[in-house]
């Protein structure tokens, strides 16, 4: 698989409708479309009698009503959160008020590292700081209903608190924003960490799953092949950054302008954050240096560059 053909945008969201995607699994997609959310946030309903709802989505009353219609009066025991971005977790509190379900999963928002002096988190507004879980799940911990069990898989990288969830005995994993078929995950420091993201890809690659249901877009039907492709894609981005540094680029905007020439300009800000995450990882490995603490505004150079 090449990085040119590995991503698929072939997805029909059917906004507001409950779509059966696997036995006892329904998807309801919110109509919060955009450059970062693609065709909207996918919420998943697991079970047939006692239910779990994974990632209820953003503050959106139309989506709440669509979820309640799909639930159709059945018992919801758990509302499960993969991570605390405002397109995934805010509706949990409202759904809890309607169903009495426990909110479980990701820890409240925290950063992978502290902000450096003078540094600004460009995606700070994307964090759901009102999220209040009833229980935080650790890696490997189970959430169980009468006919299903979901196991938490710690997959930090996109966010420091990101979890994926394996539906036991099915080979299905709900991957949130860690792995998506339509695009690579945004890794934005200090909440995101490229080293953690790559480690989480390795963790998923070591598993033997058959199907991923992501937070946006359609399913990943060949997980191992796709994850290997994601790793290759990130390694190519790393190589492109090192090449730009070798050609004299020193700032993130310079690098983004060259590396992401064919990318939607609306995504260049996010691309800059991913480049920054990659530079942080390269600094940790001793391949790149910068003056002082790394930040979006800093100048970077190759570690062996004496100029």
Write a structural description.
Pfam families: Lactamase_B, WHD_BLACT. InterPro entries: LACTB2_WH, Metallo-B-lactamas, RibonucZ/Hydroxyglut_hydro, Sec-metab_biosynth-thioest, WH-like_DNA-bd_sf. This is MBL fold metallo-hydrolase. This protein is of the alpha/beta class and 307 residues long. The chain folds into 2 domains: 213 residues, 4-Layer Sandwich (Metallo-beta-lactamase, Chain A); 66 residues, Winged helix-like DNA-binding domain superfamily/Winged helix DNA-binding domain (Arc Repressor Mutant, subunit A), CATH 1.10.10.10. It contains 6 helices and 14 strands. The strands form 3 sheets. The protein has a 7-stranded mixed beta sheet with strand order 1-2-3-4-5-6-7, with helices on one face. Strand 9 and strand 10 form a beta hairpin. The radius of gyration is 20 Å and the shape is elongated.
């Amino acid at each position: 698989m090449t990085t040119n053909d590995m991503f698929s945008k072939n997805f029909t969201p059917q906004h507001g409708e409950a779509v059966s995607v696997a036995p006892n699994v329904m998807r309801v997609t919110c109509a919060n479309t955009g450059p970062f959310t693609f065709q909207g946030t996918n919420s998943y309903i697991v079970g047939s009698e006692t239910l779990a709802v994974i990632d209820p989505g953003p503050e959106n009353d139309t989506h709440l009503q669509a979820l309640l219609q799909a639930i159709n009066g059945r018992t919801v025991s758990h509302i499960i959160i993969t991570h605390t971005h405002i397109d995934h977790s805010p509706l949990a509190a409202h759904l809890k008020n309607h169903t009495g379900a426990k909110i479980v999963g990701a820890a409240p928002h925290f950063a992978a590292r502290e902000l450096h002096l003078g540094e600004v988190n460009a995606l700070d507004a994307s964090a759901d700081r009102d999220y209040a879980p009833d229980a935080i799940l650790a890696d490997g911990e189970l959430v169980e209903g009468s006919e299903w069990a979901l196991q938490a898989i710690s997959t930090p990288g996109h966010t420091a608190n990101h979890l994926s969830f394996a539906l036991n005995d099915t080979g299905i994993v709900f991957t949130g924003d860690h792995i998506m078929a339509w695009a690579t995950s945004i890794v934005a420091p200090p909440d995101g960490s490229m080293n953690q993201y790559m480690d989480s890809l390795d963790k998923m690659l070591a598993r033997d799953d058959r199907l991923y249901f992501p937070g946006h877009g359609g399913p990943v039907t060949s997980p191992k092949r796709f994850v290997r492709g994601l790793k290759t894609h990130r390694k190519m981005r790393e190589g492109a950054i090192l090449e730009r540094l070798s050609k004299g680029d020193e700032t993130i905007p310079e690098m983004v302008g060259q590396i992401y020439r064919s990318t939607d300009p609306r995504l260049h800000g996010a691309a800059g954050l991913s480049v920054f995450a990659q530079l942080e990882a390269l600094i940790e490995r001793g391949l790149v240096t910068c003056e002082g603490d790394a930040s979006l505004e800093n100048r970077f150079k190759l570690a062996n560059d004496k100029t």
